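OP here, attaching both records as promised.
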Amino acid sequence: MLLTVPNQLTMFRVLVIPLLVLVFYTDLQWRHLICAALFGLAGITDALDGYYARKYNQSTPFGAFLDPVADKLIVAVALALLIEQNGNIWFTLPAVVIISREIVISALREWMAELGARGAVAVSFIGKLKTTLQIIAILVLLAFPDGSPYYLHEIGLITVYGAAVLTLWSMIVYLKAAWPSLSGKTAKTAKED
């Protein structure tokens, strides 16, 4: 069944993306907090769709395809908006690292799936930690632009750098695990604890 609750939550996350962009470019006084709330709501739906899919056995091929796409789209769009908002190398550099890693790992997973070795690039603990820091950084930076009180913007920048470091680390873990397949040998698993 295509329109399961988890799939509806995932599609909702995709629909939040244009709304996030529209609100970002308005002159609303609370636009930064509204953007952060929209991004946070999308994060909650991500957790809920996975929970419902597992608890009620509602996993579908469509959901398995769309869920990671929705995640990567909203993160990439939010980072693109923040690149424009910050307009400097200090933010653009970690944002480009994060976006580039997502593209590389998505392509790697697709390629490994074609080889029947998708499990070799399964999500690791480092990947989950990276995602958590990335979400926190984006939420803080969307809510608190440069010049916000209490150094909240600077805390967001530090967090995005932490996410970028973990992004590179997790990419190395995945590439290392996939290297045997990339070099024509059998793949190992990339899971780390």
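Record two, same layout:
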Amino acid sequence: MIKKMGYQWLLRRLMAEREMYQTSDLVPLLAERGITLSREQVYRLVTHPPQRLSMDTLVALCDILSCSPNDLIKPEVVNAQLRKTADETAGPVSLTARRTVVRRPGQNPS
């Protein structure tokens, strides 16, 4: 089975923990580190998980927030098989091998 990976982008949470509540607060801090992004680009960076991110921007964010890339990005499996139960809650499916016995018509069960 192929494992499909995703991630949680935790930039907004880390900013809030450091009392940075305006996305525009990052614009001058990034510029000090040679990263020139518009206010709109920074807003998208904070509010939406980026599909692509330059290493320079990642390193600048880590420096600004005094964190590591592991603090900003939390990997997660996104294609776990789920099964709905009678009460409509979803839970992980337990996949275990079971031995199957094939019985032909007229054959006595053992």
